[in-house]
Write a structure and sequence with these properties.
The structure holds 2 protein chains of 2 kinds. Helix content of chain A is 42%, strand content 9%. Chain A is of the alpha+beta class. The N terminus and C terminus of chain A are likely disordered. The N and C termini of chain B lie far apart (50 Å). Classes of the chains: A alpha+beta, B mainly alpha.
């Protein structure tokens, strides 16, 4: 012990050798750890730092030498410098050297390189004014100071983030629950976007649905959840810029004549559950799952959208604009007035959507709460204390006086769904919220075994189609474009072509 | 650092409420059924609210009048002793996610850059928020989130003392919009600030807070961690055959105290929640079923103990248990 310390003392602790020895004598055990930690960390970090530092200096020198020759930086020069500089010696800090260095940098600011260096998305198009702005700045400061916080902030808005001018409105897509949605194009990337305009002037300040949607979506980064690109705040309006997806599950079902390939049903189900369980882990509920809120792009990627109600503890029956909110996907516990705030609420809707994809018609299309409950109980059986503990003491349930229906065999209603699929459907449509399957458990259901094992290990932001073995098939009910109802956009034709293409390969 | 001017613009021209007129920590907050005398007093208080400084009386027992946020609790809720579904299905991973996120939403030393605000002013404001959220029957989560919003806003913007209360009201409004089914009405909220501010000022400040916080309101709260740890303790108790659930109400009281005390600003919500449960377990003479905390948790627990002993009403609550 003593020896070891003495051994490394002269190397590392020479100034404080007295202290360490005292410590060592008083508390042996602690010292052991202390010493180990010191011998491991302190001397090494010092040397590493030093090495790093010298390394950096060396690199800098190399850069200084190489930059003029054009080997390392910038594109293989179009101007193979006619006025070649004097060959610089290592460490030479002549003014001419600096001048040349700045010229080399100047040359680098092509559009591609800016986006590469700033690690911007590859498809981003920087406005020419912005590029112009960058260059004189660099000429003035050849030593390329790190950007200060202020200048970084300014440059983000310079390239058009957070500005309404960056987006061109193309046409109205619809009135949402509390907002108007437009199709648009980003001048920055030339990509299509959906612009959701939310009026901020309400009696009660900023609408809570908008606050929830923005604050929740900012934290949700997942391949199966719609991406919020940008937020633009003007005096009267808040505009949310979303990625644009040209279809939703409702339209998709319409377009394939309500006859989907069962393989595609499985892929859509998996994507829906993937996005949903990502939310549920974060204690975020969707609360308004329905085919219209599941957006689908031309690659067949399904994304959850419309998070306005996501955090609300009760689902309102009317929206701000007094539209009726559909009851079709609402679980019986909510219909009977439960205010329990938990994830099984979404899982019932997932079951209804599975049924709808497999049969092509909504499962419980009730118009009123009573009719909705009636449809549910007629198919699933009227709940008893056994299938739903506590239901007999629910006043609302008792007041309806439903007949005692027996549960029907689901296979007779969804003949196209295989046994595993039926099993999954039953597990999702449990009355008792505690026995209803969770999203995470549903992903592990044997119904999805045929999709392989790797699909479970995908990173959150990777699409399921990044796996070669996962591909959509042609939907049997899909009609050629001739039979498409009027008013469908060209983008839908594109959808079908690409799906056809995937199937062929 | 001349942002105060910006804030002053939303402050009332006639001076308004100084922080000194905010309410002190309420001595009794037990949920006793209101007696007729209390009802009478509340009626009178409603009448007096225009005259009184801050709009409401010192002790705010839950109001008997139906508040807009009242929800009927139906017998579909899980039975006592059962653990919540979310905890069973997603508890572990969900906890890990919140724990990771926590540091990004933790405002450290929120008063450091404030030229006018003191720790006492913050204590007064948070105490007001605590009693106000109970009065409005908002969840503890709303309250914790409101305090988190206030603190994070203070990091970004210097605030003048005379509109500190408006910041508190706007934060509570935002928090309840984020978390609750129904948020309190703006006019209702303003009446608790003795109508010193206008609706326009509150709405402007609401927008400013949203922008300064970049709409990031989804912060992991003290209430979340308290809830998770309570469930965790319950789970291990159920495993060992003990049927008594953890007493989280006392732990919640300790957490409330810590919210109001600036000295606990440096501890993250998870540390405070864990320490509070640990402390209550100690105080109740129970065996601590949770993991033995870190050095930081121990330090926090000791400070909480001191805080509890300084608050007489807390000691009284413990004695009655």
């Amino acid at each position: 012990m003593e020896e070891k310390i003495l051994n490394f003392e002269p190397l590392f602790f020479s100034p404080s050798s007295q202290n360490t020895r005292v410590l060592c004598c008083s508390t042996m055990n602690k010292m052991k750890n202390f010493k180990r930690r010191f011998s491991l960390s302190v001397p090494r970090t010092e040397t590493i730092e030093e090495n790093d530092f010298t390394g950096q200096i060396n690199q800098l020198n190399i850069q200084h030498i190489q930059a003029p020759t054009g080997d390392m930086l910038g594109p293989p020069s179009q101007d193979v410098s006619p006025v070649s500089p004097e060959p610089t010696t290592p460490g030479a800090q002549s003014p001419s050297h600096l001048l040349y260095h700045s010229k080399a940098q100047h040359r680098r600011f092509s559009m591609e390189d800016v986006s590469k260096r700033m690690s911007l998305p590859m498809d981003i198009r920087l406005p020419p004014e912005f590029l112009k702005k960058l260059q004189p700045e660099n000429e003035n400061s050849p030593l390329c100071k790190p950007l200060s916080r202020m200048s970084r902030r300014a440059s983000l808005s310079d390239i058009g983030f957070g500005k309404l001018e960056t987006y061109v409105k193309l046409g109205k897509l619809g009135e949402g629950t509390y907002a108007t949605v437009f199709k648009g194009r980003s001048k920055l990337t030339e990509n299509l976007v959906a612009l959701k305009e939310i009026r901020l002037e309400h009696d009660e300040g900023a609408p809570c649905t908008a606050i929830r949607e923005v604050s929740l979506l900012k934290n949700l980064k997942h391949a199966n959840i719609v991406t919020l690109h940008d937020i633009i705040h003007t005096e009267r309006c808040l505009t949310l810029v979303f990625e644009y997806l040209d279809s939703d599950l409702k339209q998709y079902l319409d377009n394939c004549g309500n006859l989907m390939s069962m393989h595609n049903v499985k892929i859509f189900m998996f994507q829906l559950l993937r996005g949903l369980s990502y939310c549920h882990k974060r204690k975020i509920l969707h609360r308004d799952l329905k085919p219209q809120n599941l957006l689908i792009n031309d690659r067949g990627e399904l994304k959850l959208a419309d998070f306005g109600l996501a955090r609300a503890k009760s689902v309102p029956t009317k929206t701000y604009s007094n539209e009726v909110v559909t009851l079709w996907y609402r679980p019986p516990d909510v219909l009977l007035g439960s205010t329990e705030y938990s994830t099984p609420i979404d899982m019932w809707g997932v079951g209804c959507i599975l049924y709808e994809m497999a049969t092509g018609r909504p499962m419980f299309p009730g118009a009123t709460v009573k009719e909705e409950l009636h449809l549910i109980f007629r198919l699933m059986g009227t709940p008893t204390e056994e299938t739903w503990p506590g239901v007999s003491s629910n006043e609302e349930f008792r007041s309806y006086l439903f007949p005692q229906y027996r549960a029907q065999n689901l296979i007779n209603h969804v003949p196209r769904l295989d046994t595993e699929g039926i099993d999954l459907l039953c597990a999702l449509l449990q009355f008792d919220t505690r026995s209803r399957l969770s999203g995470e458990a549903a992903l592990r259901h044997s119904y999805f075994l045929s999709l392989g094992e790797i699909i479970h290990n995908l990173p959150d932001t990777a699409s399921v189609f990044s796996l070669r073995e996962v591909q959509l098939q042609k939907d049997p009910g899909h009609r050629s474009s001739v039979f498409q109802p009027l008013g469908k956009t060209l983008s839908h034709l594109y959808t079908f072509n690409s799906r056809w293409f995937l199937w062929k390969n | 650092r001349c942002v105060i001017g910006l804030i002053r613009m939303v402050a009332p021209a006639e001076g308004g409420c100084g922080s000194g007129t905010l309410h002190r920590r309420t001595p009794t907050t037990t949920a006793a059924p209101p007696s007729d005398r209390q009802k009478a007093r509340r009626r009178k208080q409603k009448f007096m609210s225009k005259l009184c400084d801050s709009g409401f009386e010192e002790d705010l027992a839950p109001s008997p009048s139906p508040s807009p946020v009242r929800i009927e609790v139906l017998p579909l809720r899980p039975h006592a002793g059962q653990l919540p579904t979310w905890f069973l299905q997603y508890g572990d991973i969900g906890y890990r996610i919140q724990k990771e996120k926590e540091a990004h939403f933790h405002p450290c030393r929120s008063l450091e850059q404030q030229p006018q605000l003191t720790a006492e002013a913050r204590c007064t404001l948070v105490s007001w928020l605590i009693s106000l959220h109970k009065y409005l029957r908002l969840s503890f989560e709303s309250c914790c989130l409101a305090v988190n919003i206030v603190d994070r806003f203070l990091v970004s913007t210097p605030v003048a003392a005379d509109c500190f209360q408006l910041v508190g009201a706007a934060a509570l409004l935002l928090a309840s919009k984020q978390v609750e089914v129904c948020s309190p009405r703006i006019s209702h909220l303003l009446s608790f600030c003795c109508d010193a501010f206008t609706k326009e000022q509150l709405c402007n400040l609401e927008c400013l807070i949203l922008l300064r916080l970049n709409f990031r309101l989804d912060a992991p709260t003290l209430a979340f961690f308290l809830d998770y740890y309570t469930n965790y303790l319950d789970a291990s108790r159920l495993e060992s055959g003990c049927r008594f659930p953890a007493d989280s109400s006392l732990a919640q009281k300790v957490c409330e105290l810590s919210l109001a005390d600036y000295a606990f600003n440096k501890y993250s919500p998870s540390v405070i929640a864990g320490s509070a449960l640990w402390l209550t377990s100690d105080l109740m003479g129970g065996q601590w079923a949770g993991e033995l905390g870190s050095h930081l948790a121990l330090e926090c627990k000791d400070k909480l103990k001191l805080l509890v002993s300084l608050n007489k009403d807390m000691l009284e609550t413990i004695c009655t248990l």
